[in-house]
Every structure is written in structure tokens, then in C-alpha cells.
């Protein structure tokens, strides 16, 4: 018969769990911000493995010696609350949003590639040309502006205001 008290009663002080959750969440958010926008795009299998491995790596420091359901629920609530708090703060204070949230970065301006943004996001000219072709554009000179969006996607504005083609969806979607 399970010991219901140890299953539901916190096994680690609540303040310690809150602090562990807070520090881990904020440090991971900072690391993701530094990694760049390009990494925010679609997830491949290696990305899924990376998420699982990072989760396993931070779990012991996150939960300490906890073993109850209450510990896990408090940690999850801490992470969700911090996520909501940062979103609310970014909404309320636009200056703070510039630090917390990613902004679109100009990859192409008036038909010229921005080498500075390419270096920052570790994108090659070939990768950008692939994205242009997916939008039905063969030459960078056809682009008035192209932005690397916060979600990792590239938005394109053609010269003359023409709409680019919709990028094809991967098979099976």
C-alpha cells in the first residue's frame, strides 16, 4: 500500500523548490536568447534529442532530492508562472521586451545580404538562397527586404510589392 503522505507532501522545502525552478528557468531562457533566433525554427530529430538531454541534465539540479508529486507540481507551476510573468512584463514595458523577446533581424535589405546578421545567426549564403527559392525567388536582387523572424522563419518582401510564393509544407503535414 502506498504511503500517501510521502506521495503528496513536499519532500523539499517549498522555497528551495521555487528558487531552483526560478534559477533554472531564467538561466535556460538566457541561454536560448544567446543561441539566436535561427534555432527557434522547426524541430528536427537532433533538436528533440537535445531538448530531452538538456531536460535530463538539469533535472537533478532542478528537483534536488525531491520525490513527491507536490514537488513536481510546484516546479512546473514555477516555470509556467515565470513564463507568463516574462510575457506580461514584455507586453507592459516595451523597453524590457527588447531584452526579453527576440526581434526580427534584417537578412536582406534592398537586394543585399546582411553579413553581420548572417554571422550572428551562423547562416550561410546557400541557406538563405534555399529559403528564397522555397518562396519562388531565384535572385537576391528581387528582394526588397527579408527578415529572420523570432520564430526562426524567414519573411520576404519582394521588390515592387509582389507576394512571394508560400513555402511548401513538408510531406505528411
TrEMBL record:
Q: Which InterPro entries match?
A: DUF421, UPF0702_alpha/beta_dom_sf
Please state the protein's primary subcellular location: membrane
Give the UniProt subcellular location, in the record's own words.
Cell membrane
Key words of the record: Cell membrane, Membrane, Transmembrane, Transmembrane helix
Membrane-spanning regions, if any? 12-32, 44-63, 69-93
How does the UniProt record describe the way this protein sits in the membrane?
Multi-pass membrane protein
Superkingdom, according to UniProt?
A: Bacteria
Residue ranges of domain YetF C-terminal in the record: 93-161
Which family, according to the similarity comment? Belongs to the UPF0702 family.
Q: What is this protein called?
A: DUF421 domain-containing protein
User: Which classification does the entry list for the species?
Assistant: Bacteria, Bacillati, Actinomycetota, Actinomycetes, Kitasatosporales
Amino acid at each position: 500500500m502506498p504511503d500517501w503522505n510521502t506521495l503528496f507532501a513536499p519532500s523539499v522545502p517549498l522555497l528551495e523548490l521555487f528558487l531552483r525552478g526560478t534559477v533554472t528557468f531564467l538561466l535556460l531562457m538566457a541561454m536560448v536568447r544567446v543561441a539566436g533566433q535561427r534555432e527557434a525554427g522547426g524541430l528536427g530529430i537532433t533538436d528533440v534529442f537535445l531538448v530531452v538531454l538538456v531536460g535530463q541534465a538539469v533535472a537533478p539540479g532542478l528537483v534536488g532530492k525531491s520525490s513527491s508529486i507536490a514537488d513536481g507540481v510546484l516546479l512546473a507551476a514555477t516555470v509556467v508562472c515565470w513564463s507568463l510573468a516574462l510575457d506580461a512584463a514584455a507586453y507592459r514595458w516595451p523597453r524590457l521586451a527588447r531584452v526579453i523577446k527576440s526581434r526580427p533581424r534584417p537578412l536582406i535589405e534592398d537586394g543585399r545580404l546582411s553579413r553581420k546578421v548572417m554571422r550572428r545567426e551562423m547562416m550561410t549564403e546557400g541557406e538563405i538562397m534555399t529559403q528564397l527559392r522555397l518562396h519562388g525567388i531565384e535572385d537576391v536582387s528581387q528582394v526588397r527586404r527579408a527578415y529572420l523572424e523570432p520564430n526562426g522563419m524567414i519573411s520576404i518582401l519582394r521588390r515592387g510589392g509582389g507576394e512571394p510564393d508560400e513555402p511548401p509544407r513538408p510531406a505528411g503535414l
